[in-house]
């Protein structure tokens, strides 16, 4: 329901019994539309869903229609939300935490294709073409997700032409991102790929650290990541990841705080990511 926020009078009120029209120059109070809070969803989680880059670009009516079909589920760290090869049944949105799109090599090594963060949506392709799920979806940390059933998504696609176009855009964006990652894997040294991945993690999960503890330009990746996690994300060994992280730390680029990565010098990290500053990884 739309709600008009009241505004305090800017001019003295007339005496009782007299009428005076409001001044013509006063602005009309805005009508603010707020989506209802889903049961089990905290206000900050609702805000993260609403402000997601893709979701925020939808019309208010479509956003409301999607949320009306969603249910909230809390997933513990390490839990598998969807298993590779299974029949797809639900479309997934991330309200808080992080989900890994994972698979494994024949020798048992894990490989994480991507991390989904707050505001990201995934799983529509398998629902649309009725193919088995391509990747495991695993909670990287304790996470809150929105789940839209297959029947509800089909109904939305039939009744909301805007959603069909929006999903095409979302999947094109994801495909281009996968192409970039494949190109990086084939053409860039590990040090550069580590720096690029840290930049992406900053964009997804970054926030300013506690003021006064580190320089103001520093950023904290608010996601607990082990060297094994980074190795799975970058298709590299832990030993090589450790070597790159040590060099970045020696340059003053990285720090650590309670198991989380701090980027102390974002510009120098950008120099490594672009190849302007090269690291010696021969011994990594």
UniProtKB/TrEMBL annotation:
GO cellular component: cytosol
PROSITE patterns: CNMP_BINDING_3
Domain Cyclic nucleotide-binding: 54-174
Pfam families: cNMP_binding (PF00027), HTH_Crp_2 (PF13545)
InterPro entries referenced in this protein's UniProt entry, alphabetically: cNMP-bd_dom, cNMP-bd_dom_sf, Env_Response_Regulators, HTH_CRP, RmlC-like_jellyroll, WH_DNA-bd_sf
Keywords from the named record: DNA-binding, Transcription, Transcription regulation
Domain of life: Bacteria
GO molecular function, one term: DNA-binding transcription factor activity
PANTHER family per the UniProt record, alphabetical: CRP FAMILY TRANSCRIPTIONAL REGULATORY PROTEIN, HTH-TYPE TRANSCRIPTIONAL REGULATOR ARCR
Name under which the protein is recorded: Cyclic nucleotide-binding domain-containing protein
Organism in which the protein naturally occurs: Pseudaquabacterium pictum
Taxonomic lineage of the native organism: Bacteria, Pseudomonadati, Pseudomonadota, Betaproteobacteria, Burkholderiales
